[in-house]
Amino acid sequence: MWGQGKDEFSAQDWKDFYTKTLASNYDTWDLNGFDQELLFMAIVKNQGVDEVLASIAICDFDDFEELRKYKPWVAAFVVREDLRGTGIGTAVLKLVEQKAKSYGINQIYLWTEGEKPFYLKRGYKEVEQLIKPGRVIDVLTKSFTDL
Q: Which Gene3D superfamilies is this protein grouped with (predicted)?
């Protein structure tokens, strides 16, 4: 699971995250809200069985205290490993950006470890770099008012 083995995420954190998403209202977003998270999944039927192709979320908080000055965030963005490089990630990211714009969000943030070129090619700009023991975290943003 994404985030597994990272100090800032416990198994209980992930269980709480996914449980909370089940009760989310996907029709609205409170621009002044806090502790909001909406998880989206790309699912396809394969021989009658649902297969998750990718997941992505919008949330208005970050687990790193140093980054809580920014919001909202693209988070939990995972594409099934065998489908990476096929365009699914780009399509899912575009869809969540469109959803964010529909909520009235004008700017969104994300952080990544090692995938910065992917986001730069899709219009994201560098904000800062956070150095943690054994980790380099690039913080990026995309403004929808510049488009």
A: 3.40.630.30
